[in-house]
Amino acid sequence: MNLQLNIPENFRLLESLPEDRIDSKTYGIGNDFYVGIISIFNIQNNEVMPMDSNSSIIDKIHTILNENQGLIEVNNGITKDKNHFVYTIVKDYHTQLGTSYIITMHIVKNNDNICIQGQFSEQSLIGKRDSTIFNIAIKNKWIEFDKDNNTYTNWSKDPYNNEFCYGTPMNLSEKKDFDDMFPEHPLSKLRLLISYIIENN
Question: What is the pLDDT of residues 26-41, one digit of tens each?
């Protein structure tokens, strides 16, 4: 088994839990604003997501989302060291606990299929990113209240299928454009991790 995957040095190796895969390594990172935990392990060829068909992955995710979840991002490509990768980000929203962002990433490196699975969650200032961008969007008339449907236009929608409305779709504040405004937000931190893995593997 080869888990020679380069991840940021500030991720701390954690003790394995009974429910963890025997062949996995688990790392954690966080502060007062967010916490992130990832597990890294090898998978078989038939477990690797298709690396040339984002649409099939998107369709599959749409079939398994629950009412608290929404698709944020699906992407594939080649790392700096010419290794193929694919990843998905799905959000899991809970009114009291805030929002978590679930990452699944597959990389084919040195003839090994490496899987990164994890979750980055809000710890404080829950909903701050959403409310701040919502107010900016209202002020700039990016969104407007639709009296007929008792909702705001263009605030939340699936990033790949405007007709898909089930669950809790991605909202405007979760666009990558706003990551720099909220550097301690879990989604911003998760995207930084993905960028690091692509640039260093």
Answer: 999 999 999 999 999 9
